[in-house]
Amino acid sequence: MTIRDVARAAGVSVATASRALNQSGLVAAGTRATVRAAAERLHYSPHAGARSLITSRTHTIGVLLPDLYGEFFSEVIRGIDQRVQQGGYHCLISSARHGGPSLEAALRAMRGRVDGVVLMSPEFTGELSRRSLPAGFPVVLLNSAPSQLPHPSLIIANFEGARAMVRHLAGLGHRRIALIRGAEGNFDAAERRRGYRAALAEAGLPLAPELEIPGDFSEAAGVAGARALLELPEAPTAIFAANDGMAIGALFALRDAGRRVPEDIAIGGFDDIPMARYVEPSLTSVHVDISALGERAATRLLALLEGRSEPDVSRETLPTTLVVRRSCGAPNS
Amino acid sequence: MTIRDVARAAGVSVATASRALNQSGLVAAGTRATVRAAAERLHYSPHAGARSLITSRTHTIGVLLPDLYGEFFSEVIRGIDQRVQQGGYHCLISSARHGGPSLEAALRAMRGRVDGVVLMSPEFTGELSRRSLPAGFPVVLLNSAPSQLPHPSLIIANFEGARAMVRHLAGLGHRRIALIRGAEGNFDAAERRRGYRAALAEAGLPLAPELEIPGDFSEAAGVAGARALLELPEAPTAIFAANDGMAIGALFALRDAGRRVPEDIAIGGFDDIPMARYVEPSLTSVHVDISALGERAATRLLALLEGRSEPDVSRETLPTTLVVRRSCGAPNS
DNA sequence: AGTGATACTGTAAACGTTTCCAGCTGCCGA
DNA sequence: TCGGCAGCTGGAAACGTTTACAGTATCACT
């Protein structure tokens, strides 16, 4: 089942067989047909390892994610795979959980297996880059903080999305708008908070520190956050949660506390997970096309691999859109 | 950055370097240390392709899924990756969309890249197996119809789960229990229908053909199914939808039609997707631990690869559990 | 001192490809 | 008739590993 067998069966040399099976080089039409037929008959398929040894291309890209849990990651993967497959590439997936050695190990283990990687990791530093990657190794960063790393990087419009949401709430007349924040040290969380503050400033509203509640993206944090806000001397009339999970948690906490949403308190989330449209009342959120993010990352990486683009440092932002549903109390929804 | 460089830097031959870096063979402790140090200093990591060429092991397994959409697949992947990573293996993911050539192409493209594959595909036949896989190639099948294919196979307890659900509904006093079916030709769908019928028979209830509504696992099918059931001269008092998506669709349709759930009509679903607990009323469903399915598949495949188990044909069934929530109207929930 | 065993190290072949280079036809023009 | 050239084909090197085998010390023992 090697190319030798095919060559022998077709009565040619391996060189000719190779040429006939790839498009390369010149082979007589008849010979090509014979070889093709033999390959077909023997169910030959080339050994990728051997091929990559000589061509130094694996036609595989690595996808390194912090975790594999939840639909965010599955959507990213879907977007990447879709794009990559149509370019004739494959996807080697790996998750590098928390903890230092793991990420480096995962990165190293990919050496010789992949032509480049799409990397999403908060802990990826320049130091690590230098240590575990060959210089000039193609990398596309996903949702990472700005840095001087020499890799193109993709982020979603956290700032703009959050600002649009809070602007929307302010536009509905809310003056006291609370924020349930994302995880500490998380880049997305920081950006969304920045958007929140910017919108408040634009609307001429004061920054009230007691209205910024810490959170960690979990539903439980949403519950706790909403409860804390209800304890305030002057409760907010609107809550912007930094993601949908916390927004849904807040929704439950408010319902339990006997508050009506959106009549008493309006709620807005972020991410627009599928569940957002199913909760009661349906959740106003900021839509993010995650699979498009993956697809775009793959496109950038492939461009790098095919040498169609210089390894630049450019940062690309994917737009978000505000999706108005019932939880914010906007009139026509 | 090849092993030659390491050998040269350490002042030994490549053979010794290789032996020092792997555990194999006998090397003087001092030499080993020198080589290790050199490798560390040069950031050497072995070329997987070259290694796999000689050892004929890639330490990678393929995962071939019909699609990458939705949390079912992401959970399967997560389970597989988790298990596989702890065994020192990697995951090459690929989705073989609808259409014949695609699956075969994907399977072939994995030749020389993976040591075995976890395969989930309705269209995988013996014929295809013979054509696109080397004889004896390790394969574990996921959720496929029984067949005489010489591969171990894993399924979830569709029949038992559906039967438990319908039995539960019958136990609540329902006499007219409808079924919104899964996709035509789908193995899971057929099994769930079989469970439905078995439970009816057990409960001494007649099979009413008009109560079996076709569906396709989509939310829209749930909506349409519920509407059709309401049109009946004698509407059912309970509906079992073959998956949660359709159950949620039915929920909406009933709500729109002014029926109360569960007071007027009870509803049960299948899969226990995360959303099930968030809809109003929360959805009674059959829980399936999907990541465990993936993990188990990976375990079986690894056992095959390590030669710890014969390539048997055994069929393994993963249990499901009934999760009672509010949509079925059970008293204590 | 010679012998054999032991402990380590090096040489070289092999894995399955691709590709450079050279060789072999047959044909055309001189 | 012969040189040259195109068109095609084959031999062999190369990619980076692992590993069978052979080689070289060192050392204990007779």
Can you walk me through this structure?
Two copies of one chain form a homodimer. By secondary structure, the first copy, chain A, is α/β, with parallel strands linked by helices. Helix content of chain A is 43%, strand content 15%. In chain A, the strands form three sheets. The first copy, chain A, has a six-stranded parallel sheet, sandwiched between helices. In chain A, strands 7-6-8-9 form a four-stranded parallel sheet, with helices on both faces. In chain A, helix 1 (3-10) crosses helix 2 (14-21), helix 1 crosses helix 3 (29-42) and helix 5 (71-86) runs parallel beside helix 12. Chain A is elongated and about 90 Å long. Chains A and B meet through helix 4, helix 5 and strand 2 of A and helix 4, helix 5 and strand 2 of B. Strand 2 (90-95) of chain A pairs antiparallel with strand 2 (90-95) of chain B. Chain A binds a DNA duplex (30 and 30 nucleotides) through residues 2-4, 12-16, 18-19, 22, 24-28, 31, 46-47, 49-56, 112.
